[in-house]
Amino acid sequence: MTSMDATDQESEDACLIEYTVNPAEPATHAVVEAVAAVSGTDAEELPSLYEFVETEALDQLVAPRISEVPRDDVTVQFTYCGKIVTVSGKTITVHPTGE
What we know:
single chain; about 100 residues; alpha+beta; five-stranded antiparallel β-sheet; 2 helices
């Protein structure tokens, strides 16, 4: 299960949401949930993440090491559903693209 620490900011940058990912959960699931939360839609209604990023590679890049310690040395950023998604260690942040 993903822990959400949602912070909506009323500013020029619009909203920001930060998710803390459970080490047992694939990052790809947390990305979809975070973008759904920011978009105000159900995760099932979003397009497949696979259309935007290689999901297996993303999960492998940011997966915890054998000791379950999050990989803070890897950051992946991509655009999904009009949002900029950053995955770093156990944290996923979502920002608007500014378009």
